[in-house]
Amino acid sequence: MEFFDVVNSMGHEQVVLCSDPVTGLRAIICIHNTSLGPALGGTRMWKYESDQAALTDALRLSRGMTYKAAVSGVNLGGGKAVILGDPRTDKNETLFRAYGRMVETLRGRYITAEDVGTSVRDMEWIRMETKYVTGVGGPGGSGDPSPVTALGVFSGMLASAKKMWGADTLSGKKIVVQGAGNVASYLISHLTDAGATVYVSDIYEEKAVNVAKKTGASVIKASDVFTTKCDIFSPNALGGILDDDVIPQLTCSIVCGGANNQLKSEQKHAQMLHERGIMYAPDYVVNSGGLMNVASEVDGYEQSKVMRQAEGIYDITMNILNISADRNILTIDASNAIAEERLAKLRHVHGTYVGSPTIRGV
Length: 362
Ligand code: NAD
Description:
By secondary structure, the chain is an alpha/beta fold.
């Protein structure tokens, strides 16, 4: 497909390629939809296999942010950015400040935050060049969104358990967690506290070992993550992992995790999970706590309020699971329908002109 065909097929408003050879910056900012407000979404730093892979990731992630905001009641649009580079070796102040300048050129159409491979410190470098950044530390800043994201995933998992087994408890359940990063470590604490038996894996095994030590989880090899027998599989690493090869191997009843874009092909792989009798809790719904956290910076950050909002993901998830069951549609379709309905209605509301006309310069 040609470049514009790809962009048009997902309905993006704007794609910005950022290049600065002096600092080594290569980044892509995707603004998907601003019907609900300025586009907000994190900046991911990753060593992509190709520029095309980076673009595809940014396009998919930004579209996901539009749906996430719409379904979770947040008044923001969808956007996301990727910086092409190795977060372990390629980070420095000038690179992030050059990126901050690029964000500034969009004058608030895009607001950034942390994502995989970026941290609060990186957001502080970006903040030196633009105010359009959330997830910074200090007074008024929401800091690391992971605890709130993890609470939201946990709440969505409780709702899924209630729908699947009739009780919203995870006590005695076996849960396999892929990834031992920020979200996973907080999530696993909730899971072990709730009496679940948790198995964790990471491509960097020492990370899994550290999380296991703190939480009482057991470490498994990254290669065993799909085949280890469990009740719930929780993806908390990267996206695109649920595909033709993996889905037939799964032994779980529920997939519920914080990673974005878990389904390699949204419709096809949601359908495959459904046919295997596996309940899929839509990723962008259960991980919307991170968005709630950064969005709250706009009105004055208060963590206890955001935590209560993230617990509301239980009800949002349950509503989706109920609609899916009642209408006999996929959970992802139920969720997309709720998001699209809100987008369409608010697009209509925002279509009412509220400005002051200038007539003959008066
Ligand atoms: P992170 O970088 O802290 O953790 C990701 C972990 O996954 C890393 O430890 C990495 O080594 C590991 N990993 C990568 N590939 C793996 C594989 N194949 N098998 C096992 N482990 C693997 O990132 P995070 O902030 O915890 O985010 C995790 C996921 O949740 C991402 O998809 C992110 O987009 C999504 N998410 C995060 C937030 C948030 O608040 N941080 C909010 C919404 C969504």
